[in-house]
Amino acid sequence: MSNIEDKFPRGLWVRLIIYIAVGHLLAAFIWLLFEIGAK
Questions:
Q1: How far apart are CA 1 and CA 8, in angstroms?
Q2: pTM here?
Q3: pLDDT digits (tens, 9 = 90+) for 1-39
Q4: How much is the pLDDT for 2?
Q5: d(CA 30, CA 24)
Q6: DSSP letters along 1-39, please?
Q7: Which residue spans traverse the membrane (predicted)?
């Protein structure tokens, strides 16, 4: 595991997790708009 962490700096992991979280929140918001609009 330490071999992988040497290739990717800690800041990159933090940024990746934030991007994934924001992407999922945005997708959930858009899905919610479509669900409300369909009714």
A1: 11
A2: 0.62
A3: 566 666 778 889 899 999 999 999 999 999 999 999 998
A4: 61
A5: 10
A6: -HHHHHHS-HHHHHHHHHHHHHHHHHHHHHHHHHHHHH-
A7: 12-34
The two three-digit tokens of residue 28, written as one number: 């959930």
CA 4 to chain CA centroid, Å, is 20
Q: In angstroms, rounded to a whole number, what is the distance separating the alpha carbons of residues 5 and 2? A: 5
Residue 19 CA to residue 13 CA, distance in Å, equals 10
Cα 20 to Cα 11, 31, 37, 38: the distances in Å are: 14, 16, 26, 27
